[in-house]
Amino acid sequence: METHYNLSDIEFVKQFIECKLNPKIFSHEAHLRLAWISIKNDGIEIAEKNIQSQLQNFVVFVGAKDKYNKTLTIVAIKIVYHFILKSKSKSFKAFLNEFPQLKNNFKELIDQHYSFDIFNSNKAKVEFLKPDLQSFDN
């Protein structure tokens, strides 16, 4: 089990925002959890805004500023939101069990929206690139 689960949702988000979260536990699944919590608590629009600034602060804190990708950040939030709209789950663990492709096939989910590589695009790192294949729910 991933160690970010040792923290409650409140403590997980608090440590992330305050840049006190151990970067070793901020895995892909932890990214998804942050999006899920933020969307559930604040709605999609506020979650998109807040996570972008919080993640930018966090990558500076861990010395990985060059890893931040604006398009990927927004896309991940939008994909989580898409599945939240279909979900009956009351917890993040149940949500991931309901939609394991979020954890296991995330790149394939992104590839449904983009015909080009947003992971390695310098432009995608600094600005949001709209999908060219299929739009998102919002």
Task: Looking at this protein, list some descriptive labels.
single chain, mainly alpha, 138 residues, 59% helix
Counted beta strands: 0
Average per-residue pLDDT, rounded, comes to: 95
Helix content: 55-70%
- What does the oligomeric state look like here? single chain
The whole-angstrom Rg is: 14 Å
What's the shape?
globular
The ordered string of helix (H) and strand (E) elements is: HHHHHHHH
Q: How far is the first residue's CA from the last residue's CA?
A: 32 Å
**Low-pLDDT runs:** none
How would a crystallographer describe the biggest sheet?
none
Write a brief caption for the model.
With 138 residues, this protein is mainly alpha-helical.
Question: What does it look like?
Answer:
By secondary structure, this protein is mainly alpha-helical. The chain contains eight helices and no strands. Helix 2 (28-42) runs antiparallel to helix 3 (44-61), helix 2 packs across helix 4 (70-86) and helix 3 crosses helix 4 (70-86). The longest helix has 18 residues, at 44-61. The termini are far apart.
Layout: helices, strands, pairs:
Layout: H1 9-17, H2 28-42, H3 44-61, H4 70-86, H5 92-98, H6 101-104, H7 106-111, H8 122-126
Helix pairs in contact: 2-3, 2-4, 3-4
